[in-house]
Description:
375 residues, alpha+beta, 2 domains, 4-stranded antiparallel beta sheet, globular
Amino acid sequence: xxxxxxxxxxxxxxxxxxxxxxxxxxxxxxxxxxxxxxxxxxxxxxxxxxxxxxxxxxxxxxxxxxxxxxxxxxxxxxxxxxxxxxxxxxxxxxxxxxxxxxxxxxxxxxxxxxxxxxxxxxxxxxxxxxxxxxxxxxxxxxxxxxxxxxxxxxxxxxxxxxxxxxxxxxxxxxxxxxxxxxxxxxxxxxxxxxxxxxxxxxxxxxxxxxxxxxxxxxxxxxxxxxxxxxxxxxxxxxxxxxxxxxxxxxxxxxxxxxxxxxxxxxxxxxxxxxxxxxxxxxxxxxxxxxxxxxxxxxxxxxxxxxxxxxxxxxxxxxxxxxxxxxxxxxxxxxxxxxxxxxxxxxxxxxxxxxxxxxxxxxxxxxxxxxxxxxx
Length: 375
C-alpha cells in the first residue's frame, strides 16, 4: 500500500462514507446478519453492518458468534459472493409475442443501477474479475451482465483474519486486493486505512473527512494482512496444473469422492466464479406471449448433462470430475487462469465437508490400483 495514496478514516466517520455514496446516487449494499448467516442487503447506516460478529467456518460447518468488540468487518464472508450483482440468479432475456405475420422478439436488457458494495473481500473481487473474462470477453460481451457490472462500485476490505477454510494466499487472490476495487479498506482499532483504486474511488475519497495515514498505521495494516496470510491452514499447489489433472482422469480417487458427494450443487451455487446456467420458456395461458429466462444451474444436476437425448455425465463421479477438472485445469486453457480464488466456500457449504485442498493432492498421487498392478 503506497504511503502517498493512503488515508485514515476514523470509525465515527464511517457513516460519512455511506452517506457520500448514497448522495452520489448509489444504492449501498453491505453484509448484514439474517437467519444465522451474513447476506448482502441494502444498508443506510453503520449500525446495519455486523458489528462485533465473526464467522466460524469448517468443512460442512458454519456459525456466527458475537464477540462484543467494535469491529465492523469481523465477519470474513457468508454464502454469497459478488456474483449475484452482475450475473443474476434468474433473469428474463427476451419476450416473444405473436403478431399478424409471425412473431416479434424484444430483449429485456436490465437498466444499469448504481450499486456500491461495502465489504467485498479480495477473493470475491478476484472472482468478479474472472467472471468479467467469461462474460465480457472480446467482442461477445453479455449485455445483461454488462449492464449490471457497469454500475458496481466496490469497497473492498483487506482481510486481517482468516477462516480455517481460506486458502486465498496460495491462489494469489488475497488476503490483500491488488486491483479491481474502487476503494480498499484495512480495519484497525482506531479506524480504516483507505486507498483509492479508480478515479471513481478518488472522487468519493475526496469528499470524506480523512487525514493522511501515518507510517505506523500503514505498517500496522500491512502487518495484519501479512499475518492473515501466514495463518491460513489450507493451501493449493497449482504448479503442476493443468496437465497433472488431465493425467488423473482415470484415478481411483474419483470413485472415492463420488461415494461421498451428494450432487447437491451447493459448491457451484456459492462459488464466486461458476457460471453454468439453463434457459426456460414460460408461455402465457393463451400462448400469445412467452418469456425466455436464464437461471443459474449446476454441472452437478443430471439435467445439465443432457445433450440431444443423451446424458454425457450420467454418474456423480462424472459430474464431480467435470467440475473439479474444469475449475482447476481446462479453465486455465479457456480463460488463462484457474477458476478457483481460494475463498473456501465450497468446503464450508458442502454438507459432507468435501475439501478440494485434500482432493487435488490425492488425485496427483500415483493411483493405488496402478501401483498394485506393477507390484
